[in-house]
Design a protein that fits this description.
The structure holds two protein chains of two kinds. Chain A is 0% helix and 56% strand. By secondary structure, chain A is mostly beta strands. The chains are: A mainly beta, B mainly beta.
Chain lengths: 111, 115
Amino acid sequence: QKEVEQNSGPLSVPEGAIASLNCTYSDRGSQSFFWYRQYSGKSPELIMSIYSNGDKEDGRFTAQLNKASQYVSLLIRDSQPSDSATYLCAVNREGNNRLAFGKGNQVVVIP
Amino acid sequence: NAGVMQNPRHLVRRRGQEARLRCSPMKGHSHVYWYRQLPEEGLKFMVYLQKENIIDESGMPKERFSAEFPKEGPSILRIQQVVRGDSAAYFCASSSGTGYTGELFFGEGSRLTVL
């Protein structure tokens, strides 16, 4: 079982719609959860972090965490063409200095 | 991600040569992480260093790969006798280390191509 799984294939959404991305993780000791955005050929950029169960909103982005289900998601509201990128889910265990990343989900926003 | 400097941005090597990748952390950061991203793969942790110390190298291949972060100068990831499978993007990230929460700031990466 992979530490962090992002199983969905490329996601195409029309401009203005909501993009929904999901991520599951295997380590119940995980404490910190992150979403990074990576444009093609560029470096990952942190866009959201979440540490406790529930929702966390930041602008058009909402992260949702459910530790009981070992599940974290990212919603992008009012999707824009500039949101077209690969979104990487990352998980960290307290006291552990390495992030475990999923393979990423590609999002394509269609104007 | 501004401030983490990596060079070279692109590096081409022939099989058997050595590759040296350099990383200067963001100002004020003393913790450096190296990650590798193979084509169509996610980022894989390689090594975590503080100045003059390797803290966690659990993700480093056992052979040919080494890393250092000297007291002065950048962190260096060294790959000896490169093979085609080493072709990847190598990302460096840094953190302050204070109250570490897992938030990392990445450099633009060094893209290694092995011919």
